[in-house]
């Protein structure tokens, strides 16, 4: 049904994510997906400009119909395929007005919260940044999020952005909230927003909804035990080790990859804090270096076989390599990275935008 649809999208783009969520919710997952690289200026290519003269993504075409701008794409899909998939726009005029209001209003999350703070750091030279401007950006961010926290508090636990059902308002708002969470934003000040983030399913299999990456991995292993790679051994002691390493891998994320990179480079700290982050990073990686050294060359995180522990740990190690971290101090971790990176499952799931863009070098001198 969607074979005559094509979507040009860029990784990490909230507006692109909106269109992709909508396509999935309407049961149109067989559309042609064209990933473009913003770094390589592919959004300014002739192929994209024929559809969107502004050279922006998302750019969408359905047969002879061209629609640009994420909200317009979502509305087009909802109105064209009303009878299938999730109903994203209610019939009741008052409720429809609220959904559309929140959908348009969600742009404020992007401009004042997600990009407002982040773009200041990524687009402003360090020598041009000021503490006063940072405080102003942070104040604007918190004020905006407090507005949405209030909306959700009024609706009550278990609610979506505009009521009890997932609607176009969620399609538009969720990607920008997810961007903040992805960047390590502390949501503890916004308990209703945090609950809302957890409410939107990350994984769905039939009527089963599972959130949190480890829970998803365990569900897949337990549901499909008899096929593919056995990710959880039967031996209780070995299974416990695999699960320990799987849970423990969160420390690589918090202390080495995201904890060190995002919370330092996005929220600039004094030199003393920088040194503290480096120390925590090195200490954490040394623990994993020790685990692998004890197991010997050619081993995976929890033994001779690839397991759930590797599925959990490898992505965070790959991130720091991607960011140019010097692995020479950790020879066993470096060998482990080389061992796992060429597995078919890893190659198939490698972040698409990593394939066509060079590694970053922000951590090369760390």
UniProtKB/TrEMBL annotation:
InterPro entries: Glutathione-S-Trfase_C-like (IPR010987), Glutathione-S-Trfase_C_sf (IPR036282), Glutathione_S-Trfase (IPR040079), Glutathione_S-Trfase_N (IPR004045), GST_C (IPR004046), Thioredoxin-like_sf (IPR036249). Residues 92-231, 235-362 form the GST C-terminal domain. It comes from the Eukaryota. It holds the Pfam family GST_C. Residues 3-85, 114-228 form the GST N-terminal domain. SUPFAM superfamilies: GST C-terminal domain-like (SSF47616), Thioredoxin-like (SSF52833). PANTHER family: MALEYLACETOACETATE ISOMERASE (PTHR42673). This is Glutathione S-transferase A-like isoform X5. It comes from Branchiostoma floridae (Florida lancelet). The lineage of its organism: Eukaryota, Metazoa, Chordata, Cephalochordata, Leptocardii.
